[in-house]
Amino acid sequence: MTQSHSHSHSQSGSERKRDRLRGVTEQPASHGEGRYRAWIGRGKGRQVNLGLYPDRWLAAFAYNAAVEAVRGDLRTKNEIPEKHQPSADQVRRINARVRGRLGLDQPIPHDEVPPSADQLLTLLEITVASFWRGQVATHVADLGRELQVAARRLAESARLLLWSHSSGHPTACEALALLLGRRLDRTFRRADVTREVLDDDGDDELRLARWLVYPDELPGGGGFRETIAHLYLADEAVDSSRSSTIPAWALTLGVVPPFSSERVRFAYRARSKTVHPDAGGDHAEFVRLQAAYEDAQNYCTSRGL
Fold first, then answer.
1. Cα–Cα separations (whole angstroms), residue 28 to 34, 37, 51, 52, 225
2. Which of 215, 200, 47 is nearest to 133 (CA)?
3. Could you give phi then psi for residue 173, rounded to 5 degrees?
4. Is the alpha carbon torsion for 200, 206, 212, 214 positive or negative?
5. Would you say residue 135 lies in a domain?
6. Is residue 228 part of a domain?
7. CATH assignment of the domain containing 50
8. Range of the domain at 273
9. Is residue 109 part of a domain?
10. Could you count the other beta carbons within 10 Å of the beta carbon of residue 94?
11. Per-residue confidence of the chain (305 residues) as pLDDT tens digits?
């Protein structure tokens, strides 16, 4: 009798050892349905909780999934009888849960879509371009330098926002040209003006950005509207009420205060297109334009403009 009892006790211990599952701990009955916790060791004394499961075999499968994800050692997996294998849906959910607990996958909302090119263009226009335009307007004492800084920052922002060309985003230069076209259309409502400005500067990222950060108006006169009008609407006369305060060279070039080397150069280039003899213009008028340009350069150089 004693020998038989000892043999029975030995079998019971062997069965318990055989049924023990790696990475599975049974919780008290008070846990309800989630009585089995799956876990896996990661480093010295560190355990990652893989979640609670209603069935010990599901918890065992969660451990196996973690082993495959972080170790790839099939010999350490639990053997799960065929009748206790999880369904396809359970496999999918447990794998996703385990990878999330291990920090291997970042959850991506299914309803999240990347912003469209139009949305990014609007963001660039109403936030970045408007901000830098305001900065320039408050620092007109050093207009040339402020325009350069603001234009560079706007161009950098365009490159950062519109980086995914595979998603249909335009290049930074294309985006700035689109925004400048919108601004010109709103301001002048003349397709010829928009076309001429973009023909001149549409392939130069920084020049496009400069026009976009150029304030609508500037203290003492000038600004986006007035500068574009004098550069590209040569047929519109300069306001006679202001002619007495504007140097003769400025009237010839069609540029208004505040003066700068950059604005003078813009004006000279625009006027040259119409008065240069090679373009069918009058030679005498072109000579006057060159003299005015030289006077303008001397004026700006002497004042550090």
1. 10, 11, 15, 12, 78
2. 215
3. -65, -45
4. negative
5. yes
6. no
7. 3.30.730.10
8. 238-305
9. no
10. 22
11. 444 444 444 445 444 444 688 889 988 776 566 688 888 887 777 888 888 898 899 999 999 888 888 765 555 788 899 898 999 888 989 988 888 888 886 655 555 566 788 888 888 988 899 999 988 888 877 777 888 899 999 999 998 888 776 667 889 999 999 999 999 998 888 888 899 899 988 889 989 999 999 988 876 667 888 888 877 875 554 444 444 456 778 777 776 666 778 878 877 887 787 777 887 777 888 888 888 888 888 888 887 77
Count how many domains the chain has.
Answer: 3
| CA 52/CA 187 separation, integer angstroms | 64
pTM over 0.85: no
d(CA 20, CA 193): 82
Same domain assignment for residues 210 and 125: yes
33 and 64 in a single domain? The answer is yes
CATH number of the domain that residue 261 is part of: 1.10.287
Could you tell me if 138 and 95 lie in one domain? no
